[in-house]
Amino acid sequence: MDPRSAVLTTVALWEGGDAVRIVDVPLPALGPGEVLVRVLLATVCGSDRHTVSGRRSSPSPSVLGHEAVGEIIEVGPGGAVGDDGGALAAGDRVVWGVTVACGDCDRCRAGRTAKCRSVRKVGHEAFDSAWPLSGTYARHLVLPAGSTIARVPVTVPDALAAPAGCATATVMAAIEAAGPLPGRRVLVSGAGMLGVAAVVAARDAGAAEVVVTDPDPGRRGLAARFGADAALGTAEPVGEVDVAIELSGASPAVARCLDALDVGGRLVLVGSVAPSPAVPLDPERVVRGWLTVTGVHNYEPRHLRAALLLLDRTRDAVPWGELVTPAAPLVDVAALLTGPALSAPRAAVAP
Fold it and tell me: Where is the Alcohol dehydrogenase-like C-terminal domain (predicted)?
C-alpha cells in the first residue's frame, strides 16, 4: 500500500449544476516531474461561474478553479524546473500556467502551446481522469510534468499573484498582440478584472491615451482609479483609436471597437469565448483602412512571467488590492460560484 494514500486533502468537488461538495480525498504519489502544491489563495474567475450556470461546458465531477498562488510541498522523481530554468523546490511560492501542452505537436512546435492538440487545463479535468487534483478550489493540487511554473517575487502579495495565471497573463498576451503602444490611442472594451489590468498594462507599455467603455458605472469608476483617461458608457462616443482590446465578448461591443479604429488600427478580441451573434464586417473598410483583427485565447508561458513583472512594477502605483475580496474559507466556494456577483472583480478563497 502506498503510504501517501493515507494522507488526505480537501477539495470542493463540483458535481454538475450548482452542486458542490466538500470532500476529503487521498493525495496521490507523484510521478516524474510532477509538483504537489499547497494552495495559499485562489480567486474565482468568471469562467467558473459560467461553468456552474451552464453557459460553459466542463467535465463533472471535477475540481474547478485555475487562478491561484501556492507553495510547493513536494517535487516528483527527477525534479522539475520553473519558467526561469531553475530547479523548483519545496517552499517555493509559485503561480502556474492554465494550460499544459505536449510540446511536440505541430501547434506546439509553431509556438502555439495554448492550442496544443492534446492540451490539458488546470481546473478543467474530470475527477476520474489521470489528473484528479487539477483545480485550485482545494487545499492541494498536482501540476503535471511540463507545466509552466513561475516563482513569485517576494514583493508581490498573494492577492495580486493569484489572478496572474489567468487574467493578468491573458492581458499580457493581448498587449503583445496589440503591437507597440508608445504614443498610441488605446480603447479597452470592458472594465472587469481583465479590463482594469489592461488599462495598467497599456499605460505601462507607453500608450498615450487609454479610454475604457463599460455599461456599469462602478466598473467605470474602478477603471478611472487604475489610470484610464476616460471611462465611458457604451452609448457615449469614443472617437478614433489606434488599438482596441475587446474583453467583454458582447457582439455590440465588438462592432463599436471596429467602428472606432483609425487607419492602420488593430482590434484584439479576447472576450469572445462563447457563442454570440455575428458581427458585420465591411471588407472594403478593412482593406482601405489597413485594419487588423486578431484573437487571443489563453496565453504562452512568456506571458505568465510578463504578468508577474507587471504586477511587481506597478504594485504601489495602482490599487490592485481593490480587485480581490477578503478570503473566504473553502466551504464557501459553492456560494461564490452560484451567488450574486460581488462588488470586487474577484472573490478570494483561502483553502
Answer: 194-310
pLDDT at 4: 55
**101 with 236, same domain?**
no
**280, 295, 310 - which closes a domain:** 295
Whether residue 67 is contained in a domain is answered as yes
Q: What is the pLDDT of residues 163-175, one digit of tens each?
A: 999 999 999 999 9
Pairing of strands 67-75, 292-295: unpaired
Instruction: Compute the chain's Rg from CA coordinates.
Output: 20
Domain that holds residue 46: 3-165+319-349
Please indicate, yes or no, whether residues 151 and 11 belong to a single structural domain of this protein. Answer: yes
Domain assignment of residue 261, yes or no: yes
Q: Judge if 39 and 69 occupy the same domain.
A: yes
Based on the fold, state whether residues 113 and 85 are members of the same structural domain: yes
Residue 3 has pLDDT above 50, yes or no: no
pLDDT at 336 over 50: yes
Q: Are 208 and 238 in contact (CB under 8 A)?
A: no
Q: Are residues 67 and 136 in the same domain?
A: yes
Q: How far is CA 40 from CA 69, 82, 96, 273, in A?
A: 6, 18, 13, 29
If asked whether residues 290 and 209 sit together in one domain, one would say yes
Tell me how far apart the alpha carbons of residues 286 and 264 are, in angstroms, rounded to a whole number: 9
Same domain, 158 and 30: yes
